[in-house]
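User: Structure please.
Assistant: Input sequence and predicted structure:
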Amino acid sequence: MKVAIVRERRAGETRVAASPDVVKKLAGLGFEVAIEAGAGEGAGVPDQAFADAGAQIAADAAQTLNGANVVLKVQRPMTPADGGVDELSMIPSSAILIGLLNPLVETGQFAGYGERHLTVFAMELVPRISRAQSMDALSSQANLAGYKAVLDAGIYYKRVMPMMMTAAGTVAPAKVLILGAGVAGLQAIATARRLGGVVSAFDVRPAVKEQVESLGASFVEVEGAGDAETSGGYAKEMGEDYKRRQAEAIHEALKKNDICITTAQIPGKPSPKLITAQMVADMRPGSVIVDLAVEGGGNCELTEYDQVVQADGVTIVGFANVAARLAADASALYARNLLNFLSPMVDTEQGAIAIDWEDEVIAGACAMRDGELVHPSLTAAQGGE
């Protein structure tokens, strides 16, 4: 059995789908591990660290992927349409591909996988159930993004976060509003609280109020929220009447806060627009918005992809792929997610891949089996076309 990890080539991607610790564990499962030279540079992991852990360091992508049974990626493989190295053509026919593939948005990628009869697992599709928590890559990466968002806000905010009592006078603490209390939002709350901010948070799911308050933040409530959570634990889209009341509540809250961190995303759909240009104009001069939903179009209508912009005296931070800006920890956690997902597929006694297709985690994360789309979300979308 051979596992291949190539260097990530997409712009801004500094993570790698392995860590020295995980390489050792993969070897313990019976895998030969091949890693492309330089794959860990962006995450601060030298080739020698991988080699010392038991990996073979391959000269290029072609050598790395040659004969691979399993390919572990952070982002989807490069194709001729992307320019540069055509990674997809180098993946052996009938291999297993596992990665953060953005399957509900980048649906065109599956045509190429189908031609190569690949079995494809998208880590975004891992069911959000207790048994799969250790495999939940979205959560591990969002947790880091929530932390980093607060640090970014502190950089662009021209005041201090905590209250400071000095001989020259008292400095008031920053007021921080978090929109969306999922994994990223809860970590943002905790981090802002650690830095001394006065924190409040909003979410369409009333059930998270207790979690928000347990972290020391106040909860911004909107009448008529009702059941706003999907069976998978995500927030769902709300009706127009609720959206109007929500907008009014957020508008009033923004006027009273200095920093706003937005994290609201809906899988497979554009990010909801929670902050309008008028709301930005009514914020205090010097305020900062950090928009973590920029990959889906952003929660603020003035956010620009991977840019920091100014509008009416407010700084709007729209960095993309925030977890990759903490590449060392992001890679280590993601590699562990991959290991935990892959391990149940291995028959260690036989030294072979043995996939249990009755396993709800494996079946739930499978987008394509032997070149055929099998995930209900993808087959339904294909049928709609």
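The two ends are 38 Å apart (CA to CA).
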